Amino acid sequence: MTEAVLDPRFTLPVRTVEKATAEPRWVRLVLIGLALAFLGIFLFVPLAAVFYEALRKGVGVYWQAVIEPDALAAVRLTLLAAAISVPLNLVFGVAAAWAIAKFEFRGKNLLITLIDLPFSVSPVIAGLIFVLVFGLQGWFGEWLRDHDLKIIFAVPGIVLATIFVTFPFVARELIPLMQAQGTEEEEAAVVLGASGWQTLWRVTLPNVKWGLLYGVILSNARAMGEFGAVSVVSGHIRGLTNTLPLHVEILYNEYQFAAAFATASLLALLALVTLVLKVWVERRFAD
User: Fold this and answer.
1) Can you tell me the distance from the alpha carbon of 213 to that of 173, in angstroms, rounded to the nearest whole number?
2) Taking the model in full, what pTM does it have?
């Protein structure tokens, strides 16, 4: 077996390659400085301002704003919406990604387009769509009223809006990962006698577990922080249909700034926890 010989006319010296892939020190320092300045102005300073304003009047005022009944109700509703929407998006994301990456079928491109729909539609428009469908004057409004079912201005509407804005995340994380892995392992499992469910649980999911967890974290973060779509369908009923972002808006509009920033700090803490989990998953995924 002969070895390939590189023509010296088409090879570059090592020093030339190093110069092509390395920038002068001052360029790197400038770029790093710009990145840090951007992060400081648009991320660290606002985050520090939230906690400063939340604690400016003392820990007692902060604690009273956090344990206030409407704030606790907003926390419970936010966690409830996330607890319902994230598992449903998990099931949909795995099923859609598995179908798109492992099979060929008619309408595949259409399915991919529909998965990307929430990225291109404004959340406010999404909320209006649910109002037009399930509102009192909507398509199913009379039927829902006759059967004493309430979706808009109630918890089901908030959950539906949250599901809509978050369902692409899991699928979008898994589709390229499953496509890169190919179908060889699944085909081998089927040849060895594994059923479809066994192939999914023992071959496909273990190979994408970190990407799956990453998509779940992103979906959960968006679910807890969603404002536009939820604002349209909630009705802003204090203690009943206000999530944390909506509760912050109401407090701020009522000039209760300390309470508003205290409640906002809860969202910031949830975001920080999500960020830590995201970094941990990225490191495990890279390994």
Assistant:
1) 9
2) 0.82
